[in-house]
Amino acid sequence: MYKTYVRLERVTGSVVAVKTNDAANRELALITWPGGSSLAQVVRLEADRAYLQVFAGVRGLPTDARVRFLGRPMQVPGSDALLGRIFDGAGRPRDGGPSLDEEMIDLAGPSVNPAKRIIPRTMVRTGIPMIDVFNSLVESQKLPIFSVPGEPYLELLARLALQAEVDRIVLGGMGLKHDDFLYFRDTLDGAGALTRTVGFIHTAADPTVECLLVPDMALAVAERFALRNERVLVLLSDMTNYADAMKEVAITMEQIPSNRGYPGDLYTQLASRYERAVDFDDAGSITILAVTTMPGDDVTHPVPDNTGYITEGQLYLRGGRIEPFGSLSRLKQLVNGDTRDDHRAIMNTMIQLYAAYRETLEKRAMGFRMSEWDGQLLRYGEGFEARLMDLDVDLPLEAALDAGWRLLADCFERTQTGLPSALVERHWPEPA
Description:
Mean pLDDT: 91
Structural class: alpha/beta
Number of strands: 20
CATH architecture of the largest domain: 3-Layer(aba) Sandwich
CATH topology of the largest domain: Rossmann fold
Number of helices: 11
Oligomer: single chain
CATH class of the largest domain: Alpha Beta
């Protein structure tokens, strides 16, 4: 029997307090009043009070509203009927389709038993050379995409959703503009990729608490698919919006703020989501790519700073490209030795030459005389940016490696690259 309470002790922002000793953390409640109703979630327990975040906000909410605790946390459907569907942050259909109530699963369950995890061993191919060649993505990896507002990170996520060689895509959007939601929907639908995708989209106009639920919904569904022996890629945007929603709720509840006003458990909250990435020993896998925008391009901002301690590298998106310096996949060495014999050599050599190209740009800007070698580096760097760094480039791994060899051959002599002779003999392209 669910208990019903008929008095709100306090209303602050979108948080209400109810005097009770029977509520559980993250438990769901239904609040009803003569003018409407709303779901709410317990976000804090203190002495004999439970604090609930009201999904629909508290405008018009009287203090004599009825609060009925439902005895369970927030749930989301876990059946295959989710595929091709888009929902909001509360699990309601955003695509005009029917509501689903099959195979309901609780949000924010326990993390996977370490005994069920295996060492990552399989590459996730994306068709993006700056990832596949230089920062290979590995199944069960958790990798942030550090960016600033205005960079094409949504376009990058859409390309990953279309091209990544996985079984399922779970998309979680937080604080998106409505146009961004339409862009994702139309892009995936137009390319026929929506049938393998599930979307949970919170827009900037939706209640704050729904933003906080999106990662948990996306990861709960991803885990259900992974347990069915499927390879799942979770794409999240934007984790800074998620952290800002946490800060808004913490301020409403008058919690003591930490760095720049964020709650003191920011690290724990982020880690509990990222650590859902897993490669099961007897089932599928969950890989997480999450956009984290950096206010003022400041990597020491609390959100990217904490994220860097949790994740296994990062991708920097600058100037509409994945920046080779600073971007890092700490797990790439587990897979790029098993792809093709020239993968690691091409990766190292091309980045070294690109670094030399950047130094040559500085020399030219300062008015130094350019040598023949500098001229070769300038041709190489421009070709590298156009043929491999541009986000419009779509090449399978092997084709990207071949493109790297052709670029080297166009700009340098064999002996100038420093590549092993055996690899040069096997892969150096013949003159056109």
